[in-house]
Amino acid sequence: MAAEQDPEERAVVRPLLTDLYQATMALGYWRAGRARDPAEFELFFRCCPFGGAFALAAGLHDCVRFLRTFRLRDADVQFLASVLPPDTDPAFFEHLRALDCSGVTVRALPEGSLVFPGVPLLQVSGPLLVVQLLETPLLCLVGYASLISTNAARLRLIAGPEKRLLEMGLRRAQGPDAGLTASTYSYLGGFDGSSNMLAGQLRGVPVVGTLAHSFVTSFSGTEVPPDPMLAPAAGQGPRVDLAASVEVWLERVCTYMGLGVQDPHPGERAAFVAYALAFPRAFQGLLDTYSVRRSGLPNFLAVALALGELGYHAVGVRLDSGDLLRQAQEIRGLFRTTAAQFQVPWLESVPIAVSNNIDEGELARLVQEGSEVNVIGIGASVVTCPRQPSLGCVYKLVSVRGQPRMKLTEDPEKQTLPGSKAAFRLLGSDGSPLLDVLQLAEEPPPQAGQELRVWPRGAREPCIVTPAHVEPLLRLWVQQGQLCEPLPPLAEARALAQLSLSRLSPVHRRLEQPELYQVALSEKLQALVERLRARGPQ
Q1: Where would you find this protein in the cell (predicted)?
Q2: Which CATH number fits domain 209-378: 3.30.1360, 3.30.300, 3.40.1360, 3.20.20?
Q3: For residue 425, what is the DSSP state?
């Protein structure tokens, strides 16, 4: 497959980002004359993450980009030659040099889809040697992206639809690649934006950010702005010395708050003035560098009210320490009384943003009824997934030359489902998912309104279900190396995720002790499984 110009090329995974045993198996296949045998693998997970009952499919965009650029360079082949036996036939390395994904076909769930244990996120078919080499990179690309999306979705469910959630975890991520992936797929999972500019440039994630404590502490208060003059927001009227106006407002604010004008830190105020001059339409105050009540708030109010006289409205304040919920309530109270005192009603609704090691528990506290928090920045808890660091995806062979293959093991949970398969979601009359059905690819699809006899996984007996609607899950995205349809943009995948979650039953959507969602096998697939189990190792 010819590689196309791609603005994301710098982020593409390279073929040697894989395990050595993929190369040793490739040599084994080639030596046995089986390199071009048609084969199919499925990528799936066995248990939902975080003790929940759902996951979100993600990473397809990255997988397709990887497949379209897959090619072993001379340096790659030379390295492989250095780690494989020295007497390896040189013809094998010539075979590797010619490899690409022009014979690879991929079916997958659209990004943002709900996915459950055992249901393939990807089905990858093509020449055995090639699709074997793809295993580790595809697992890496899908597993982390899906884990991040699911983690973000859980945080969004806790926060509810009204609070703004911002991902701020790049500096906490396990490396730059993980940081970019986390910023991208936390957005898919329901966050509103990210601090990561590269995610904005490459993937269109809305980027957000204002200032840090270092900006505030860099000012001492002796600095004189080179140009303190600011024109009114409407563009008409004389320019005003903002720094001087702030000092006038500071005296009024301090008198109202019962403070001395010497109490607020002059360096903090100088920092706020400098930021307001640079961003008069997007001024936000970071309140807790020194003291929220005695410094941050009066300095912010002085600058915000000086801007307000010119027609500009501050866009928010941020807290990064202390009891965030209590402080937000106190700040909102002060904004309301100050708005009434100075007759500036816009001040009442200035958004309050918080951050500081926020996890699921703290988030639930911050969004409780009566909370005055509007915007919540989350870092480590979204990008590192501390409750479960890996989704545990696997990539298993299901057919070779059209013949089903099944892993038989003493651990029943690790037994695989054989054969090339189709997957369907059976829906109730209200559009909510009832269960997912896996069946052999040659079987006719289930029909809405018709009884279907299926075997829920782990059950001893079949059950009968009559779906009101039937939804095919796996779509053909790549056929013989060619992209079949454009991949949906990230924002569309994000919308699909939220829609899918809204349709999921509350008993499956709840985050603690949910009812497990059922995945079932068709009678024909169940019969094949039982036949292969009975036959045992051959």
Answers
A1: Cytoplasm, Cytosol
A2: 3.20.20
A3: E
Instruction: Report, in angstroms and rounded to the nearest whole number, the Rg of the chain calculated over CA atoms.
Output: 29
List helix spans (H) across 195-241: 197-203, 213-217
- DSSP run (H or E) holding 452: strand 452-456
List Cα–Cα distances, 61 to 136, 173, 370, in angstroms: 16, 21, 40
Predicted TM-score of the model (pTM):
0.95
Tell me how far CA of residue 92 lies from CA of 83, 97, 366, in angstroms. 14, 9, 60
Pick from 458, 453, 441: which is nearest to 516 by CA? 458
Backbone angles phi, psi at 283, to 5 degrees: -75, 130
* CATH H superfamily, domain 20-155+388-535: nicotinate phosphoribosyltransferase (3.20.140.10)
Residues of the chain with CATH 3.20.140.10: 20-155+388-535
> Beta strand pairing status for 433-440 and 519-522?
parallel
Residues of the chain with CATH 3.20.20: 209-378
Which residues touch 486 (CB under 8 Å, ≥6 apart)?
Answer: none
| Torsions phi, psi for 40 (to 5 deg) | -135, 135
Sheet holding 403-404, edge to edge: 403-404, 394-400, 38-44, 122-127, 105-108, 475-479, 482-483
Q: CA-to-CA distance for 347 and 335, rounded, in angstroms? A: 6
Q: What is the 3-state secondary structure (H, E, C) of 134-190?
A: CHHHHHHHHHHHHHHHHHHHHHHHHHCCCCEEEECCHHHCCCHHHHHHHHHHHHHCC
